[in-house]
Inverse folding.
């Protein structure tokens, strides 16, 4: 009888523990809300300082990775965090965009010429974002990200201090194009991976346009790519996280580079990019990421996301061309 009761209560305990983990995991899987840099900094005169909006958006996006429900989950080694995969994928997508922007801020936005010195704060901040996103001990990813955020805050403080001229942010068209070219490649890769959810034959165009070009390893003229069923939701949520971060960065571009965009008559292109990125953040009502094929009865969430990203990327290419014009 005692053994029966012990086994019974142990089973009940496991069930209750499972329910508890499920509820916590469900809450932690909610994606952070979007924010508007203008509303967030409303009434702040520093918003007129070049670079303040971009730096603040970068800080806020990075801080959100640490402060959202459940905190930073990618390096969790205990349940329920270790049992989740959608939110860690979302975090990685956003983190990749943070890394890209911090690099461009270090080598382009904060420098007037190729021979200019790099900013001391950004030199230290950028490598800290590049730590393994799953590192959990000595040092943990969270501690390195927080140190990078603190350095960005010091850089931002120097930007708004008229007496300190070593920290600068140059809102030039060529600087903006450097970041845009990086984003183009990221979005192109995301679109291809999402489109591979249904499987497709791809003609090898790697060397197209250059008859003298070569590559290290020969590849067949046609390849068939299809995303593993286990990776569908990971790719989807990684794209969701990346586009969430990019949405805020481009809204900051609209503030900091307003005069440049006006001069190049490129504001409409930027607004189109923002509109497409906003569409990627619509609520997913399905309890799981569906992968319908062709014109079947089920939706294909990956293809819908790929469509929005491709349209945003097309507008991004147009924006880059406008910025390149005199």
């Amino acid at each position: 009888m005692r053994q029966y009761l012990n086994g019974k209560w142990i089973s009940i305990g496991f069930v209750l523990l499972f329910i508890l983990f499920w509820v916590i995991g469900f809450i932690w899987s909610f994606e952070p809300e979007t924010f508007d840099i203008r509303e967030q900094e409303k009434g702040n005169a520093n918003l007129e300082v070049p670079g303040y909006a971009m730096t603040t958006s970068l800080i806020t996006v990075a801080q959100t990775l640490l402060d959202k429900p459940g905190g930073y989950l990618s390096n969790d080694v205990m349940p329920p965090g270790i049992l989740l995969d959608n939110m860690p994928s979302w975090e990685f997508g956003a983190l990749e965009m943070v890394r890209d922007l911090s690099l461009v801020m270090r080598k382009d936005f904060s420098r007037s010429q190729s021979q200019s010195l790099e900013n001391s704060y950004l030199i230290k901040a950028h490598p800290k974002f590049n730590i393994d996103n799953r590192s959990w001990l000595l040092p943990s990813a969270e501690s390195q990200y927080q140190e990078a955020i603190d350095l960005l805050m010091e850089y931002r403080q120097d930007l708004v201090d008229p007496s300190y001229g070593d920290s600068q942010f140059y809102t030039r068209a060529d600087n903006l194009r450097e970041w845009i070219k990086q984003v183009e490649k990221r979005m192109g890769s995301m679109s291809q991976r999402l489109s591979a959810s249904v499987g497709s034959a791809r003609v090898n165009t790697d060397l197209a346009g250059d008859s003298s070009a070569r590559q290290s390893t020969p590849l067949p003229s046609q390849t068939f790519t299809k995303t593993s069923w286990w990776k569908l939701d990971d790719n989807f949520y990684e794209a969701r996280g990346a586009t969430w971060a990019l949405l805020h960065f481009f809204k900051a571009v609209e503030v900091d580079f307003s005069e440049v965009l006006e001069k190049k008559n490129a504001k409409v292109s930027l607004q189109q990019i923002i509109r497409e990125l906003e569409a990627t953040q619509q609520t997913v009502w399905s309890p799981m990421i569906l992968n319908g094929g062709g014109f079947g009865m089920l939706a294909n969430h990956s293809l819908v996301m790929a469509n929005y990203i491709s349209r945003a990327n097309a507008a991004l290419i147009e924006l880059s061309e406008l910025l390149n014009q005199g």
